[in-house]
Automatic annotation (TrEMBL):
Pfam families registered for this protein in UniProt: PaaA_PaaC
EC number: 1.14.13.149
PANTHER family, per the entry: 1,2-PHENYLACETYL-COA EPOXIDASE, SUBUNIT A, PHENYLACETIC ACID DEGRADATION PROTEIN PAA
Protein name as it appears in the record: 1,2-phenylacetyl-CoA epoxidase subunit A
Listed NCBIfam families: PA_CoA_Oxy1
Gene designation: paaA
Annotated GO MF terms: phenylacetyl-CoA 1,2-epoxidase activity
Amino acid sequence: MDALEARFEETIAADQRIEPRDWMPVAYRRTLIRQIAQHAHSEIIGMQPEGNWILRAPSLRRKAILLAKVQDEAGHGMYLYAAAETLGVDREELTEKLIESKQRYSSIFNYPALSFADIGVIGWLVDGAAICNQVPLCRCSYGPYARAMIRICKEESFHQRQGYELLLAMVHGTDTQREMVQESTNRWWWPSLMMFGPPDGDSPNTQQSMAWGIKRHTNDELRQRFVDMTVPQATALGITLPDPDLRWNEERQAHDYTQPDWDEFKAVLSGSGPCNAQRLAHRRRAHENGAWVREAAGAYAEKQAARAARTEAVA
Ligand SMILES: [Fe+2]
Ligand SMILES: [Fe+2]
């Protein structure tokens, strides 16, 4: 082991952060680029199911909340692309990979938001699951990723609360509103469980990621934490989670629950979910429509640089 590698191992063992200028193994860099890019893409694609409801929000207040939430997700995407850039890739290249289907995003965003209750349930379950996944990433061994996650997690907690608050209003509303919340929960429960990734036995990269301090808990540990956190929240809403075998296990001090359909998960990841084609087509269109903005920004930057060079030459 050479000195650089020893230094890297020591830093990880001491639970210190690796910074962009530090030496790091090629595979560590590659893993982080893949994970951060996938995370950034998820934030950006994740704007679509909810963005679909901004024009149809039932009141000014609900519209303002939803707008703020969707805008936050755009911001999360930007922090994360910036974190990925510190590893030597550029955002342009990552965006190309997304729209050419060469990099993935979270399978959850390939499901449609069919009613306004989905806005509440997405905040409650999807942002709730995201929080379980992301809080440990605030202690990730790669500095720029960890720091981005601290900011993101603060906003995610607002997302979860706004969803839950909407659901509380709906379950105290009319029977139809209560039924809408139940129907939406039935649809989103299983895809939310899938957000933690495949069971530990099927997740070959987990051990290496944990050894590198990128991941702090296994997929199954995080999924269990999410289930245990969500059950009392469902009770408070008066909503049933659609799993007849969900029950408290006194011995394990945790809930037993049914696994989601992992074949469906694989099918959605490989492109055949209900909205995969629509999500990518929309992202591609938005990228094409934004070409003139990127060109104008590039031309402006060039002009500024030329002006700065002239001023320097005179001085
Ligand atoms: Fe986010
Ligand atoms: Fe969020």
